[in-house]
């Protein structure tokens, strides 16, 4: 008989037990990453991310795990439901707190529920949903949201009656290119010239790009990176989600899975970008600079990442949410998803009707974006 229970910190489960289920291919579900979020204070009840991770056991053996947070706002999710929250409030309903299964501050698609190979997945999904419904009724929690699940888990959640929301990101795919020049040869002449021109800008501005694994970064390099990362938020008059302790913790425990790109001018660091390395995918995550340099963002965040994928045989470069400017640089539109259960039936029906219309608009947008891809065959 399978049972489910909630824990309030990753410290309550040994890392090897958690990682044995989630595997090591996808960095953001790993115990070290999620624990660093908690221990650095970026994720806590104080910040509106109260950990309630769910474990499924069978005869006292853990057979499934799922990150779960009780949320008191919708910040840091990258699936925007603030309109739903406002609609609830106008109807006299409480939208917060809500349940959230996601990787905090990380809009990267991947597994969200890790299940042992010998266990029937739909049994686990059904048990999880039943537990969430029961606790939600007891404590007046409005809803459960699973953000950026992989396609198979999206289908399993939909089969249980959850509403599916679709969005679009832009990602680069390695189609057997030998090197960067080989990739450029597949582009139209105008876009090929544009990228070559942008790549020259770094040397023309006397900027050198350095790639190092996070495990090899010095204290000074981390201090420089964090000052750039924080500046990205401070320029918008907001506070950064993550602190230096989080990055240093990740570097200490999974630094060989983190790529730090540093831009150096006259012996001084002027910008930095940080990516995480999966089994076949590079995940571009954080960027910052103090002063603007022509095309440096493109070089540090996109072209250096493509270079790394080509040199190390990675098949995909997931450079994060948004950014239509990526299309002209060979990043293709791909669908991402989220799944939603809402406790109030009338509100759930209204959301489902909204999502049907939204999906139609997303499909139109995706097709339109595809028309602007720079590849020769797309012209």
Could you give a short description of this structure?
The protein is globular. It is an alpha+beta fold. It is built from eleven helices and 15 strands.
Describe this structure in words.
With 379 residues, the chain is α+β, with helices and mostly antiparallel strands. It has 2 domains: 2-168 and 335-371, Aminopeptidase (3-Layer(aba) Sandwich), CATH 3.40.630.30; 175-314, Aminopeptidase. It contains 11 helices and 15 strands. It has helices at 15-22, 31-39, 82-90, 121-139, 151-159, 180-184, 189-204, 219-234, 244-254, 296-312, 345-371; strands at 2-7, 49-51, 53-58, 61-66, 69-71, 98-101, 114-115, 143-147, 163-173, 207-213, 258-265, 268-277, 281-289, 316-318, 332-342. It has an 11-stranded mixed β-sheet, sandwiched between helices. The chain has a 4-stranded antiparallel β-sheet with strand order 1-3-4-7, sandwiched between helices. A hairpin with a 2-residue loop joins strand 11 and strand 12. Helix 2 runs antiparallel to helix 9 (244-254) and helix 7 crosses helix 10 (296-312). The mean pLDDT is 96.
């Amino acid at each position: 008989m399978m049972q489910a229970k909630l824990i309030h910190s990753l410290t309550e489960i040994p890392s090897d037990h958690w990682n044995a289920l989630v595997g090591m291919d996808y960095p953001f579900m790993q115990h070290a990453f999620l624990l660093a979020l908690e221990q650095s204070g970026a994720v806590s009840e104080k910040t509106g991310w109260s950990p309630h991770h769910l474990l499924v056991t069978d005869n006292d053996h853990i057979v499934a795990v799922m990150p779960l947070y009780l949320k008191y706002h919708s910040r840091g999710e990258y699936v925007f439901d603030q309109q739903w929250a406002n609609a609830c409030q106008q109807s006299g309903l409480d939208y917060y707190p809500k349940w959230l299964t996601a990787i905090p501050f990380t809009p990267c698609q991947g597994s969200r529920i890790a299940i042992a190979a010998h266990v029937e997945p739909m049994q686990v999904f059904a048990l999880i949903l039943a537990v969430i419904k029961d606790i939600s009724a007891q404590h007046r929690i409005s809803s459960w949201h699973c953000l950026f699940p992989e396609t198979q888990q999206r289908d399993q959640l939909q089969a249980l009656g959850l509403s599916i929301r679709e969005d679009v990101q832009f990602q680069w795919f390695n189609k057997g290119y030998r090197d960067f020049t080989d990739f450029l040869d597949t582009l139209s002449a105008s876009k090929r010239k544009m990228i070559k021109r942008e790549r020259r800008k770094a040397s023309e501005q006397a900027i050198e790009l350095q790639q190092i694994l996070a495990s090899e970064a010095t204290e000074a390099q981390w201090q420089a990176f964090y000052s750039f990362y924080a500046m990205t938020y401070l320029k918008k008059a907001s506070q950064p989600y993550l602190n230096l302790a989080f990055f240093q913790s990740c570097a200490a425990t999974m630094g060989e899975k983190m790529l730090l790109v540093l831009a150096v001018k006259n012996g001084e660091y002027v910008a930095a970008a940080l990516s995480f390395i999966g089994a076949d995918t590079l995940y571009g995550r954080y960027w910052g600079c103090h002063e603007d340099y022509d095309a440096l963002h493109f070089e540090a965040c996109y072209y250096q990442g493509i270079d790394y994928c080509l040199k190390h045989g990675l098949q995909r470069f997931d450079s994060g949410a948004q950014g239509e400017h990526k299309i002209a640089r060979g990043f293709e539109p791909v669908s991402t998803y989220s799944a939603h259960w809402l406790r109030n039936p009338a509100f759930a029906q209204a959301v489902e009707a909204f999502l049907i219309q939204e999906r139609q608009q997303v499909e139109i947008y995706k097709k339109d974006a595809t028309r602007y891809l720079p590849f020769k065959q797309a012209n």
